[in-house]
Amino acid sequence: MERNKNPNHPRKGQKIRVDPIRRSEDIQTIKQLLSRTPRDLLLFTMGINNGLRAGDLLIVKVKDVKSLKPGEYITIKEVKTGKQNILMVNKAVHKALRNYLEKVRPRDDDYLFASRKTREPITIQAVNALIKKWTATINLNHGNYGAHTLRKTFGFIQRTKYGVGFEVLAKRFNHSSPTTTMRYLGLTSDEVSEVLMNEI
């Protein structure tokens, strides 16, 4: 008898496709859900406002960002690519960061997103589990969500809500071309058609 296969498990050589959170209302609902867990709220807010890989957020320490004001940033070295990139603090990130620092009172040398048990950074697997839990809790069932959801949500909202060009997003993501970015964000034909309905 054949065992049940996980539909999200890729065949050899394929990747699991992870979706962005497409609606601003769902983003706000998750923020509300996380309002009592300052670390998780900061992780979510920082992720969707920066477009960095989760692995690059997990290596940040409290001392790296605690004194940053809106509009300031730190330079990081991407774990996956070795390329330089920046982690920016905008007003939303600053608010979540101040809330975290006041309520959690971490030490300067602590990782920003530390495990409560080990004080080491939480793992990518833990981030995956958290995001699946948050999206399931608000009944976001029409997609597959995981650690890359934060990065993809940044790109999707920047593109569809603020009209940021694929060239700019490709540079932010350190992608080789705008076409790669378009594929990465999973923009559908319907979403492209909606843009054509904007009156000029």
Structural notes for this entry:
- The protein has 200 residues and is mostly helical.
- It has a single domain, classed as hpI Integrase, Chain A (Orthogonal Bundle).
- It is built from ten helices and two strands, in the order ααααββαααααα.
- A two-stranded antiparallel ribbon has the order 1-2.
- β1 and β2 (84-88) form a beta hairpin.
- The N and C termini lie far apart (60 Å).
Task: Name the features.
hpI Integrase, Chain A, mainly alpha, single chain, disordered N terminus, two-stranded antiparallel ribbon, 200 residues, 10 helices
Concise synopsis of the structure shown:
With 200 residues, the protein is mainly alpha-helical.
Arithmetic mean of pLDDT: 88
The number of helical runs is: 10
What topology, given as strand order, has the largest sheet?
1-2
Q: What does the largest sheet look like?
A: 2 strands, antiparallel
Q: How many whole angstroms does the radius of gyration measure?
A: 18 Å
Give the C-level CATH assignment: Mainly Alpha
Strand content: 5-15%
Can you tell me the number of structural domains?
1
Helix content range of the residues, please?
40-55%
Number of strands: 2
What is the name of the CATH architecture?
Orthogonal Bundle
Termini separation = 60 Å
Query: Would you tell me the structural class of the helices and strands?
Result: mainly alpha
Name the CATH homologous superfamily: Intergrase catalytic core
General shape: globular
**What is the chain-wise order of helices and strands?**
HHHHEEHHHHHH
CATH topology: hpI Integrase, Chain A
* Low-confidence regions: 1-11
